[in-house]
Amino acid sequence: RTIGSNCNNALLGAKCDPVLNELATDVMLLIKTNILLPQATIHVKTKPALICRSILGHMLAATGDFGTSKIDESFREYVLDDTIVAPKGIRVFYWLYPYKSIKIIRDVALPQFRGDWEDFRRGGVGIFSIMKYPPLGYLVTRSDSYEGLDELTQYCRNNLDDEADIPVRLSDIKPEYWPEAGEDTFLMGGEGLGNGVSAVPRNKRKRINE
């Protein structure tokens, strides 16, 4: 209902989501490899523009209804137009998220600088959307930066299929409920806050040979 079944299946499902899944698999394999664990940063080859398109597509789908806000319109314009490689005025940040839960939280207000209440009193609040898809978390915002996170959108080059080696910092582990919770921040949301997605994958049962 948010972007149409054809675009959801043919565009996101067939072209973008496989790249998102491949990135998740590659990062998971690397962080499980004992040889690489001592390193502070690993680099993973992926297609950043398709990752960004997949993330924003899932942000749209998470609302369940056709949104008419300016944020939804900008997300939809990017997802549905193959000529736009990087989303206009939107940045996608990411961090290592070594937890099992999957979450999508749309259009919430957070302080742009955690714990800086002077900046908050001066109006330092940004609008953010969050997607946690293990082993990475993603933050979508119009803000120029957030808490030193790496930016994915800067690697969107000339074409959707262009590849880049993106860094993943193994030593920077955030709490599971970061950035939406914590003593040094707060979160505000409207009626749409309840339309987010939250799930924990079931543990696979081991087959016992008789």
Describe it for me?
The protein is an alpha+beta fold and 210 residues long. It is built from 4 helices and 8 strands, in the order H-E-H-H-E-E-H-E-E-E-E-E. It has helices at residues 5-32, 48-63, 70-80, 117-121; strands spanning 41-46, 91-96, 102-111, 125-133, 136-141, 150-151, 164-169, 197-199. The chain has a 6-stranded antiparallel sheet with strand order 6-2-5-4-3-8. Helix 1 crosses helix 2 (48-63) and helix 2 (48-63) packs across helix 3 (70-80). It is globular and about 40 Å long.
Describe what is shown at a glance:
By secondary structure, the protein is α+β, with helices and mostly antiparallel strands. It has four helices and eight strands.
Radius of gyration: 18 Å
Helix and strand composition category: alpha+beta
Poorly predicted regions are 206-210
Helix percent band: 25-40%
Q: Can you summarize the main beta sheet?
A: 6 strands, antiparallel
Q: Note the run of SSEs as H and E.
A: HEHHEEHEEEEE
Sheet with most strands: strand arrangement: 6-2-5-4-3-8
Proportion of β residues? 15-25%
Q: Termini separation (Å)?
A: 48 Å
3D shape: globular
Mean pLDDT: 83
How many beta strands in the DSSP annotation?
A: 8
Discrete helix count: 4
What features would you highlight for this structure?
single chain, 210 residues, alpha+beta, 6-stranded antiparallel β-sheet, two-stranded antiparallel sheet, 4 helices, 8 strands, globular, disordered C terminus
Topology overview:
Blueprint: H1 5-32, E1 41-46, H2 48-63, H3 70-80, E2 91-96, E3 102-111, H4 117-121, E4 125-133, E5 136-141, E6 150-151, E7 164-169, E8 197-199
Antiparallel strand pairs: 1-7, 2-5, 2-6, 3-4, 3-8, 4-5
Helix pairs in contact: 1-2, 2-3
